[in-house]
Amino acid sequence: MSNFVVRGNASGAGTFTLQSPNIAGNLTLTAPAADGTNGQALITDGAGQLSFGTVSSSTYGLFYKADPSTVAFTKTGAGTAQIKAGTRIEVGGTTVTFSSATTITMPSLTAGTNYTIWVKDDATIQATSNYSSAPSAGNWRRIGGFHYAPGGNASGTSGGDTTPAINEYSLWDLKFRPTCPDPRGMALVADSFWADIYLLGVDHLTNGTSAYNVTIADGSSPPKIPTKFGGNGSSAYGSLNWWEGAEVLQSYGKRYPTYDQFAALAYGTTEASSGGTDPVSTILRNTYTSKWGIMLATGNLYVWGANFGGGAAGASYTANTGGRGSTYQMENAA
Questions:
Q1: Cβ contacts of residue 58 below 8 Å, gap of 6+?
Q2: What structural domains does the chain harbor?
Q3: d(CA 74, CA 24)
Q4: How far apart are CA 180 and CA 183, in angstroms?
Q5: pLDDT tens, 30-41?
Q6: Collapsing DSSP states into helix, strand and coil, what is residue 89?
């Protein structure tokens, strides 16, 4: 049997002490057979086996993906998804490693709802409808999310279907997401840009700019004035002209689509047709769902575009900015 040897200090100064903790039973730690290299430390496997390894000083906030160019999750069914193999995440000082693709625990999913994906320091991975609070006590970290849509995306150019499903283009993670502060209710269009899934609602202060089955903001039902621009939480604009809508979106770090972006986000919807009536709310009319899952993408309401002014229209200054100046030429609707 090998002996455990502690050598004395060659200078004879100072004392090196190994002291056992106050434990009821025995504790056995098996040391490695050889010394490590410069800068390495002893690391335990959690079962008493020690080995030398490199300890990174940059694990705080770690969110590593084997493929950093894609989202960390894969849709595996209408209501199921996995985190990809090779993903490593720091949670409360612990590095959680998913060596193989791991199924995300899902709640009972509700159509038209945004879900947040959480990871615990024991490698539990779970989705909930709560964006701000962890699923339970302990160390959790919010790492992504998705939208569970009321209907499926278009597979061709005739719109989608009425079967609720995870919108695969709405999957986001900490390093694969829109640049605006809140990534919920958005979808990635053609690997190019993110767009709101739903039309702007009147009560965006409560629901955000993209929510299912809420009253659509339009000229008859203007949106609430953002608190960042003088709103008090209940006051609304008197209309929904280009300037007012742009101000609402700006308060969320968003903007209107350009014409080419609008054409892209609407791809897959049923072109050159009409829903027939004002939808009033952000409902599902699957005929007008795009490939990317954008709802009521065409055929229902005019929407403002980022392009400003019309080349053929008469030009003049119009006082349409709520007393804060005038614009030259009327704006374009996409």
A1: none
A2: 150-334 (3.90.1580.10)
A3: 46
A4: 7
A5: 988 888 888 788
A6: strand
Burial letters 157-182, b for 16+ CB under 10 A, else e: eebbeeebbbbbbbbbbeebbbebeb
Query: For residue range 289-309, what is the model confidence (pLDDT) as tens digits?
Result: 999 999 999 999 999 999 876
The size of the chain, in residues, is 334
In the numeric block, which tokens belong to residue 209? 């700019």
Summary mean pLDDT of the chain: 92
pLDDT at 312: 61
Q: Which of 87, 268, 244, 61 is nearest to 169 (CA)?
A: 268
Distance of CA 82 to the CA centre of its chain: 15
250 CB burial (10 A radius; 0-12, 13-18, 19+): middle
The Cα–Cα gap between 76 and 292 comes to 17
Task: Give the Å distances, CA to CA, from 216 to 29, 128, 278.
Answer: 65, 26, 10
d(CA 104, CA 113): 17
